[in-house]
């Protein structure tokens, strides 16, 4: 049943993004920033944690999940390092995902011939 919940939560997040792009004049980069920021804000308000408990990867893999990871990292960093944790906590919490994105992106650029859209 957890797969179904992940599919529903992740699907709803994607539907919200698509509706934002279709119903407003927001372009994809603006929606991406909005999603990451909303993930941070909803985590700070304690609203996103229940979504993560219900939806698992359906809530943590999309971009609001990245904001969730940043916020959780900042909270942990503050508890461990005080004020310095504000600056280091989010980076420490998301460094694995960021590193994977860079490594896989670089690998794909080597294996294939990337071209700009015309």
User: Judging from the principal axes of the Cα atoms, what is the shape?
Assistant: globular
Structural class given helices, strands, pairing?
Answer: mainly alpha
Largest sheet: none
Spatial extent as radius of gyration: 16 Å
Helix content: over 70%
Query: Average pLDDT, to the nearest integer?
Result: 93
* E-strand count: 0
How many domains make up the 3D coordinates? 1
Order of helices and strands: HHHHHH
What is the distance, rounded to the nearest whole angstrom, between the alpha carbons of the first and last residues?
Answer: 44 Å
Q: Helix count, per DSSP?
A: 6
Uncertain segments: none
Percent of sequence in beta strands:
under 5%
Question: How would you characterize the overall build of this protein?
Answer:
It is a single chain. This protein has 118 residues and is an all-alpha fold. It has one domain. It has helices at 2-23, 28-44, 48-55, 57-60, 63-81, 85-111. The mean pLDDT is 93.
In short:
The chain is mainly α and 118 residues long. The protein has six helices and no strands. InterPro entries: Spore_V_AE, SpoVA.
Write the layout of secondary structure elements.
Blueprint: H1 2-23, H2 28-44, H3 48-55, H4 57-60, H5 63-81, H6 85-111
């Amino acid at each position: 049943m957890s797969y179904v919940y992940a599919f529903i939560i992740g699907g709803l997040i994607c539907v919200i993004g698509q509706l934002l792009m279709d119903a407003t004049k927001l372009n994809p980069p603006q929606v991406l920033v909005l999603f990451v920021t909303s993930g941070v804000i909803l985590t700070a308000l304690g609203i996103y944690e229940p979504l993560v408990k219900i939806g698992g990867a359906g809530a943590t893999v999309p971009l609001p999940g990245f904001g969730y990871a940043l916020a959780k990292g900042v909270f942990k960093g503050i508890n461990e390092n005080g004020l310095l944790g504000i600056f280091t906590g989010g980076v420490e919490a998301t460094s694995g995902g960021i590193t994977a994105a860079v490594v896989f992106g670089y690998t794909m650029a080597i294996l294939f011939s990337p071209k700009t859209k015309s």
